[in-house]
Design a protein that fits this description.
The protein is an alpha+beta fold. The protein has two domains: 15-70 and 288-393, Jelly Rolls, CATH 2.60.120.1100; 80-278, no CATH class. Helix content is 15%, strand content 32%. It contains seven helices and 16 strands. Strands 1, 2, 10, 13, 14, 15 and 16 form a seven-stranded antiparallel sheet that branches. A hairpin with a 4-residue loop joins strand 5 (173-178) and strand 6 (183-188). The longest helix is centred in the middle third of the chain and has 26 residues, at 127-152.
Amino acid sequence: MSRFNTSSTHPLIPNSQDYMIYKKYVSIHSEDRDIIKYPLSTEFEIELPQDYCNVQTVRLSTWTFPSNYSTFSQLQNNVLMTFRIINPYNPGDYGLADPLQDAIFEILYASRKLDFIIIIDEGFYNPVQMSVELTNRFNDVVSRRITEALTTVPKYVALNLNAQFTPVGYTQFVIVYNSVQQKLFFGNKSSEFLLTNDSIIYADYIVNADCYKKSIYPEFSNWGLPAYLGFTRCPSPSFSPSNGEYPRFFYGEINPGDNGFWLLPETTLPGAKIYYAVAPLKINVMGASHFYMEIAGMNCLDETIPWALNEFTTHTNETNGVVNSAFAKIAIPTTPISQWFDNDIDSYMLYNPPAERIRKLKIKLRYHNGAPVYFGGFDYSFTLEFNLLVPQSQRKYNIFKPEI
C-alpha cells in the first residue's frame, strides 16, 4: 500500500528517468504566413500546428528556395557609380568651327570637377548585359547634363543647339567585356575621364530607411557597384596609348567587322584621341554566396563581421563578431532564374534543459551584411527537425515459459 497515494486509489508510477528520443518534422511554407501583417517573406511569424514539448534539439532538415533574387539592387547598395570627364574634346585645338561642339566642350569643361552619377536597373546581369547597360547609362547621363545646359543657358538657346544635339546625343563612351580576361574595359572616343571609385557618395548613399534597416558595416569588398565591376576603392584614371596603337581583343570581335578593335577615335571630330581604363579585377555578377536564417530564440551560430579600423580593433585582440547571430547558414548554389533544393546542415540548436514548449516561430532571412533577402513574389519552404524527449514509465516484465 506504500505505492498508493493517500488521496487517490491509483498507484503512482515512479519516473524511471528514461526517455525516448522522438523525431518530429514540421514543414513550413512562407505563403502560409499572415500576408496582410507580413507582406514580405523575408521576415514573418508563424504558429506551429501543435505544442512541441521537451524539445532537446532543433535542426534545419531540408529546404528549397527560388533563385530569383536581384544581385544588383538598392538594398545591396550596388547600383550606383560615379565618374568625371576631366579633359573633354576641345574643337578649337584642331580648328573645328562648330557651335554645337564648342558648346559641348564649354559645358563639359565647366563640369570637369563634378561627378556624373549613374544608377543601373535592379536585377541580375550577365557580363555582356552589364557592359551594354553601363555604355548606355554613361552616355545618357552626360547627354542629360548637356541637354539641360543647352535648354537653359540663353546663348545656347538662342542658337537652337539642342535641336541639333538631341537626335544623336552623347555617344563617346564605349564599355565592353573581355570574355577571355573576364574584365570590363571602359573607353571614350574623344575625351579623358576618371572613374571616381573613392567618391564619398558610396558611403553616403542611403536608400529608403523605412523599408531598409541594416547595420552599416565598413565593407571593403562589396562597397558599391565598382566593387562588383572589378575595381578597388582607388580612383581609376583613363589613358591614351602613346604609341598610337588602338586597343584590340585578338580572340575575336566585339561588334561584327571590328576585327577586335573595340575602341577607335570619333571620326566626326578631327584630332580626337581615345582614352580607356581597364578594371584591375574580374567582374563579379554572382552576388552573395550565402544568406542566413534567423529564428528568434534558436540562434546558435556565431558570426564574424567585417573588420573595421577603429580604436577597439587597434588596441585589443578581441573579435568584433556576433554571438548567436543566426540559426543556419544557407548556400546559394545557382543563379537566377531557377529553384534549388538542399538538405542536411551541421548547425542545430541544443536546449539543456529541454525546452518545455515551442509553438510559435519568428523567422528572418538576411545576407551577411544585414540586408534582407528578397525573392520577389516567389515563395519558399523548409523543414525543421525537432528531437523530443518522451518520458518512459517504469515497467517490469516477468516472462514465464509455459510447461509442455
